[in-house]
Amino acid sequence: MTENIKKWYVLRAIGGKEKKVKEYIDNEVTRLKLGDLISQVLIPTEKVYQIRSGKKISKERTFFPGYVLVEAVLTGEIPHLLRNIQMLSGSLVLMMGSLCL
């Protein structure tokens, strides 16, 4: 029996399409019942505070524009599912060591 160890992977999305990629992956996980193989899909964001007209406004912006992080086990159809998303401009890359968030 093999152990399914989840690892973090980086997907390079077309600029401004990170939320659509995340929604697509979440919908596919639900539709295909892959919740045990793909546990998290994250878009790295940070809160930025700006002062406009004397008021402090908080805004959320992407920390790494164009990147989507996925925690998954790459078995079966998962690599095919992640590599063949139309809104991606790059390939699937494993996060290692100090690059992990």
Features:
101 residues, alpha+beta, four-stranded antiparallel sheet, two-stranded antiparallel sheet, 2 helices, 6 strands, elongated
List the helices and strands and how they pair.
Layout: E1 7-13, H1 18-32, E2 38-42, E3 45-52, E4 55-62, E5 67-72, H2 78-83, E6 88-94
Antiparallel strand pairs: 1-5, 1-6, 2-5, 3-4
Question: Which segments are poorly predicted (pLDDT under 50) over 5 or more consecutive residues?
Answer: none
What is the CA–CA distance across the termini?
30 Å
Tertiary shape: elongated
Q: Could you give the count of β-strands?
A: 6
Q: Give helix and strand order, one letter per element, not per position.
A: EHEEEEHE
- β content, as a range? 35-45%
Which structural category fits the helices and strands? alpha+beta
Profile the largest sheet.
4 strands, antiparallel
Radius of gyration from CA coordinates: 16 Å
Strand order, largest beta sheet: 2-5-1-6
- Overall mean pLDDT: 86
What level of helicity do the residues show?
Answer: 10-25%
Number of helices: 2
